[in-house]
Specification:
The complex is a heterodimer. Chain A has one domain: Orthogonal Bundle (Non-ribosomal Peptide Synthetase Peptidyl Carrier Protein, Chain A). In chain A, helix 1 packs across helix 2 (32-46). Chain A is built from four helices and no strands. Chain A has helices at 2-12, 32-46, 52-56, 61-69. By secondary structure, chain B is of the alpha/beta class. Chain B has helices at 35-46, 60-74, 99-107, 124-135, 213-216, 236-258, 275-285, 307-315; strands at 2-5, 8-18, 21-23, 49-51, 84-88, 114-118, 143-151, 169-178, 186-192, 200-201, 219-220, 226-227, 233-234, 267-270, 325-333, 337-345, 350-356. Helix content of chain B is 27%, strand content 26%. Chain B contains eight helices and 17 strands. Classes of the chains: A mainly alpha, B alpha/beta.
Chain lengths: 72, 358
């Protein structure tokens, strides 16, 4: 989880610390660029393909982690 | 579908670019997003300036005609030597007749000039080249002019920040000829998946969904962008996934079938969706980013199937007049269609830009 949170912060270029309970759409960087960056990170680091609707349906950082570790 | 070609070469390349330059920084107020957020997008994606036609009636064919006249005047090309004219475009003058016929008529080319329109976009340079090489196998065809031209800037909604600030206009004119003494083989591969055709499309305006008051009404989407069904639409994340999943294996398989490795390639001259995506693609392919020009969208915009000739002319330009380069080309986009080609390019008779004044 720690490693995932670091990768997420790096992908989003987010300065405020992200924890498992962080509400994603409250982050300033959770925008169209953020969605692209997260999709690219999912592919690179987890080999998972995320679609726009997958990303739109996420609430907290832990939901994204669950989605990525559950696999494609 | 894999192709091999023998005894063919590109002999010249002219890229016609509108003189009119616009900057994303000047348009940020037009979008329904905070300027600070647009500035973040500008840095992250690599948006900056782009070249677009000024007039709402300037067509891709106008750029082609201007460029071809320039080549005639410069003595780079003789009208009577053109055996076939291929136009790859998604922005034709009309549904009918073919725009290549319109160009032929405007230039007074002979009745034996074969004119073909191909409806392809970002993968269309390789598709057009493959078609040109196939035509050259005919004894009566010795010289083919391949036109890759679009005015995509006229297709997107000015309130759609996912598309409008990315798109530019251009026409490339590439001369392709038989060259029997050339012994190197050109390898190409083209793949298509119409099941994903909705990832990049203009939904209305054809015969499936004719334009109406309903299709013309702008709609604001949850992502903050507004567009109508008459506008260009791209599902950015689906396109990113497509590029990352389908391009690396396409290039790997083509290199393997040609018995070549990535180290043999001087430049990976790829379609230009944006610098962000090309950096990700280069990393995924383990290609040094210096070998993959990726900054064209920041200068010209994504000008559809003309991006590869634009990248070649911008980055190699005059160097192609005196030496040859081992290139891997790849295009990917609307269709979905993805294509790649391995070829030696140069020495060329000409490789330059022409500014299009309106």
């Amino acid at each position: 989880m720690e490693e995932f949170l670091e990768k997420l912060a790096e992908a989003l270029d987010e300065e405020t610390p992200i924890c498992a309970d962080t509400v994603l759409f409250e982050l300033e960087t959770w925008d169209s660029l953020g969605a692209l960056a997260v999709a690219a990170m999912a592919k690179e680091a987890f080999g998972v393909t995320l679609h726009a609707e997958d990303i739109a349906g996420l609430e907290r950082a832990r939901d994204l982690f669950d989605r990525l570790t559950r696999g494609a | 579908m894999n192709f091999t070609f023998h005894g063919k070469r590109i002999t010249g390349c002219l890229v016609v670019i509108p003189e009119n330059e616009v900057a994303f920084a000047d348009e940020m107020e037009n979008y329904d997003f905070p300027v600070k957020n647009s500035q973040r997008l500008m840095r992250g994606i690599g948006l900056d300036r782009r070249r677009v036609v000024r007039s709402a009636t300037t067509c891709a064919s106008d750029l082609c005609i201007r460029g071809l006249r320039h080549l005639f005047e410069q003595g780079h090309l003789a009208p009577e030597d053109i055996d076939a004219l291929i136009l790859v475009t998604e922005t034709p003058d009309y549904f009918m007749p073919p725009t290549s016929n319109v160009i032929q008529g405007a230039l007074g080319l002979g009745h034996d000039t074969l004119c073909l329109d191909i409806n392809q976009g970002c993968a269309g340079f390789v598709v057009g080249l493959a078609q040109a090489f196939m035509l050259l196998d005919q004894p009566a065809i010795n010289k083919v002019v391949l036109l890759n031209a679009d005015t995509l800037s006229r297709t997107a909604s000015p309130k759609d920040r996912n598309a409008f600030p990315l798109l530019g206009d251009a026409a490339s004119i590439v001369v392709v000829e038989d060259h029997p003494s050339r012994d190197d083989t050109i390898h190409a591969s083209v793949k298509m998946d119409g099941a994903r055709h909705q990832a990049i499309m203009i939904p209305a305006g054809g015969f499936r969904m004719p334009t109406s008051q309903t299709t013309s009404a702008p709609k604001k989407f949850d992502d903050g962008n507004s567009r109508s069904l008459n506008h260009y639409h791209m599902e950015g994340i689906d396109v990113l996934n497509f590029v990352m999943e389908d391009i690396p294996p396409l290039v790997d398989a083509l290199l393997a079938s040609a018995g070549r490795s990535k180290a043999d390639i001087d430049y990976f001259m790829f379609h230009q969706p944006n610098p962000f995506m090309l950096r990700k693609l280069a990393a995924e392919m383990e290609v040094p980013i210096e070998k993959m020009p990726h900054d064209l969208v920041s200068i010209y915009g994504n000008n559809s199937s003309a991006t590869i000739p634009t990248a070649i002319t911008h980055h190699l330009g005059e160097a192609t007049l005196t030496r040859d380069f081992s290139l891997c080309l790849s295009g990917f986009g609307v269709g979905l269609t993805w294509s790649a080609m391995l070829l030696r390019l140069g020495p060329l008779d000409f490789c330059e830009f022409l500014a299009f004044k309106e």
